[in-house]
Amino acid sequence: MTILIPSYEPDQRLIGLIHKLKEVSGDPILIVDDGSGDDYRGIFDTAKNAGCTVLTHRTNQGKGRALKTGFDYVREHGIKDDIVCADSDGQHLPGDILKITEAIRRHRNHIVLGSRQFTGKVPLRSRIGNSATRMVYAMATGKPVQDTQTGLRGYSSEMLDWLCQVQGDRFEYEMNMLLEAPKAGYDLYEVPIETVYLDDNKSSHFRPLADSAKVYFPFLKFCASSGFAAVLDFALLFLLQWMFGSLFLSVIGARLCSSIFNYTVNRKIVFAGRAQTTARTSIPKYFSLAVAIVLLNYGLLHLFHVNVGIPLFGSKLITEISLFLLSFWVQLKLIFKSA
């Protein structure tokens, strides 16, 4: 077993974690200095003196790239070890790291996740961030996961080649890994661990806006595609009405053009990495979904507004959000599914 710790601008908590691990485990520790610079050389030198292997990036390249550097090192040196990845900020307890070690031995070819339960005092941005990524992952895969953002993870040695091929260099890498695992034939296994946040998680280098955008990028692309299609539908409705004076033709023409636009963008851009189906097989599915969405729109509006008695605005909002999420899931899992 190799314990891999990606690290950027660490403090003495990294050294504390190393000493605690040495007390409970004889497993080698591999640290990747992700371009921390000369100011942090003393900490990494101390880690070397403690018996750790330290690899160094000249510049900061991101957590995903640091992990891949560690995976590459293990792979290229012919080490047949399983790997446990832990963060360097002291928020993963040695006992929990050992739990992951044991779980990997029992669950081969699984991504073993150290899943925090988020009890006690949890920083607001961490609580919101984890809730959001849990929702996106469950919606994208149909499988709920307690902690999609955990940095404490374990991998079987057989998975190393695949781990080096997963896209992403920063925090999005770990989310991409979870999204790509099912089609690669790997399942997930969760092990409950302690929820530890030190100093309100101030040591985290996660950038809420930039890194969140990368984590949620597939869903954001779908939102943008749907938004542009809605604007196109709106504009064409008025243009066709002005040109032909027929509301029926204007509605049908605008919806047809915006649907073709939306289909093309979704197939070529939004789900480009997954779309293994041909246009001949995906077009009928897409437009069948479009028809179903129109029928469901009316049915749900009638249910919420007439039968349940929710005001029209609220009924429309619930309906649109529900159908938007349904459309994303159906296109991801059925229309543009990977081979």
From TrEMBL:
Limits of the GtrA/DPMS transmembrane domain: 221-336
UniProt subcellular location: Membrane
UniProt GO BP: polysaccharide biosynthetic process
InterPro entries: Glyco_trans_2-like, Glycosyltransferase_2, GtrA_DPMS_TM, Nucleotide-diphossugar_trans
Entry GO CC: membrane
Source organism superkingdom: Bacteria
Membrane topology: Multi-pass membrane protein
Keywords: Membrane, Transferase, Transmembrane, Transmembrane helix
Mitochondrion in keyword set: no
Transmembrane regions: 246-265, 286-305, 317-336
Keyword RNA-binding: no
Gene Ontology MF term list: transferase activity
Domain named Glycosyltransferase 2-like: residues: 2-128
Name listed for the protein in its UniProt record: Glycosyltransferase
